[in-house]
Design brief:
This protein has 134 residues and is an alpha/beta fold. Helices cover 37% and strands 19% of the residues.
């Protein structure tokens, strides 16, 4: 197989611009040049924290089936608790907000499941490595 050298493109960015119609670098790459890995990782974690938690399909179904709607205050407390869990290095957290219990995958900011006080009767939670009471 013969590969020809096409000297009209000098970099990957030029190829990307030519074939994908991009005129700027992708979002999130600004300010990376000259930054350390830890600074970049911190910027990514901060942007995730600002976005707030997402709900998995299972968690959304559980809330809908039980007619549970979260107030803005409860959502803020859930997000803040996720941020606190992240700061402590927790990966899978139990977060208690009022009479609701949420299992949250902290790195992905995703609520995996949600329960109300009726379902938490056994008071046993598995596969978590930390808990936050909000």
């Amino acid at each position: 197989m013969r590969i020809e050298n096409n000297s009209s493109f000098l970099s990957i960015e030029q190829v990307q611009n030519q074939y994908l119609g991009k005129t700027e670098k992708a979002t999130g790459t600004v300010g990376i040049k000259g930054s350390s890995f830890s600074e970049i990782l911190s910027q990514i974690e901060n942007s995730k924290a600002q976005d707030g938690v997402k709900f998995s399909k299972h968690a959304s179904n559980r809330l809908n089936d039980r007619g549970i709607e979260l107030s803005d205050d409860q959502m803020n407390r859930l997000n803040e608790a996720r941020n606190q869990a992240s700061a402590k290095g927790i990966n899978e957290s139990l977060i208690l907000v009022d009479q609701l219990a949420f299992i949250v995958n902290v790195p992905s900011s995703t609520v995996v499941t949600a329960m109300d006080s009726k379902e938490t009767g056994s008071n046993i939670f598995t596969n978590i490595d930390g808990a936050v009471i909000a």
